[in-house]
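Form P-L/3: holo structure prediction, ligand NAP.
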Amino acid sequence: MGRSFTGIVVWHFAGSNPKGFRPFKEILQRFDQPIICLYLAHRLITSTFPSDRPLKVAVLGSTGAVGQELLQLLEERSFPVDELRLLASPRTAGQTQSWNGSELIVQEVNQNSFQDIDLVLASAGGSVSRRWREVINSSGALLIDNSSAFRMDPDVPLVVPEVNGDAVTGHKGVIANPNCTTILLVMALAPLANRLPIRRVIVSTYQSASGAGARAMRELEELTMQVLQGKTPKSNVLPYSLAFNLFLHNSPIQENNYCEEEMKMVKETKKIMNLPDLGLTATCVRVPVLRAHSESVNIEFVEPFPLHEARSILSQSFGIHLIEDFENNRFPMPNDVAGKDLVAVGRIRQDISNPNALELWLCGDQIRKGAALNAIQIAELMIGSK
Ligand SMILES: NC(=O)c1ccc[n+]([C@@H]2O[C@H](COP(=O)([O-])OP(=O)(O)OC[C@H]3O[C@@H](n4cnc5c(N)ncnc54)[C@H](OP(=O)(O)O)[C@@H]3O)[C@@H](O)[C@H]2O)c1
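OUTPUT (holo model):
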C-alpha cells in the first residue's frame, strides 16, 4: 500500500511518462522507504541532463569490443538518439560502421568532436578518457566512461544501476562504469548484503579473451587455429598464447603482489557497495574463452545465511538469472550468457569449512553487463527513458 502510494507520487514526479517510469519503479522495489524514493526521483528529474528530447551522442572508441556493443545496445534499446558521432583513433578514421540502417563514418577524435554533444560514451582506454575529459565537460556533455581513469576519484560516481543507481545524482560531469569483473560480482553480492552484512569475500575469476578487447578475441581464434594445424602459437596482443592454455591476469603486478585487475575488484567493490571495511581478496585468471567471464565466489556473512533464502533472494534479483540443476550437474557457463544481459548464478551452497559462508558460481557477458549495457543503463537512468 505504502509502495503503491509512493509509486503514484513518483509517477507524478516522472511526468506520468510510461517510458520514464522504469527506473523509478526499480528504485521503488529496491527501497522500502518512500521518502528515499521521492528524493531520488526528484533529484533525477531535476538534474541538468536533458530528458525532454533525443540526445546528440558520441561513442569514443566505437570500433572496439565495447564500442561495437554500445552501438548495438543504443539501437536495440531504442535509446533516444538525435545524432550519433563515432570517434576512434587515426587507425580507423574514415571506416564506416552501420547503425540503425545507416552507414556512419568513423572520425578521428579531435578538439571539435564534442561540440553540441549531450552524452559521450567512452570506451577507448584510460589515457584517451583523461586526455578528453576537460574538452567533453567544457562542451557541456556528460561523460560515461568505461575506463579505469576516474573510477576511484571521490567526485566521480561509480555506478551499477541495480546496486547504487542513486549515486548518479552526485555526478560532476563524469560517471564511471566499474571494472567488468566487479560489476558481475556486485550484482550477486548486493542483494545478499541487503539481507545480512558481508564480512569477507574470496573470489577467483575466469576471464575471457574479450576482456582484453577486440584484437585479443581475434588472436585467440587465430592461435587456436595455429595449434590445431600443429604450429607453435605466438601471441602479440596478450603476453602469452591463450590457445589451450590459461595464465594469471596480465595487468601489472602491484607492490603487494596482487595484479591491478585484482586490486580494482577490491577497491571498486568497496566503493560501489559503500562498504569501506569489507574484506575482499581476488585471484584473476585469463582463460581460453572467447566471450563472458566466470567467477567462483565465497561469501562470509556475520552469521549463517539460510541457503534457501539466498537462493530465493538471488532468483528474484534484478539482472540475475539462476541456472541451477543439481540433479543433472548443470550450472552457468559462459556460453549461456554470451551476448545476453543477465548475470547467471548457480551452485549456491553452504561452505562446509565455515558455517557463516556461502559458495556460488557466476557467469556474465562482460562486454554487455560488464561494460556497454551497464553504461547504457546509467544513461537511461539519467534521462529516465526506460
Ligand atoms: N573488453 C571488455 O570486456 C571491457 C570491459 C569493461 C571495460 N573495458 C574498458 O573499455 C575500454 C575499451 O575496451 P575494449 O575492450 O573495447 O578495447 P578495444 O577493443 O581495444 O577498443 C579500443 C577502442 O579505443 C579506440 N582508441 C584507441 N586509442 C585511441 C586514441 N588514441 N584515440 C581515440 N580512440 C582510440 C580504438 O580505436 P581504433 O579502432 O581506431 O584503434 C577502439 O575503438 C578500456 O578502457 C577497457 O578497459 C573493457
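COMMENT: The chain has three domains: 2-45, 57-149, 182-367.
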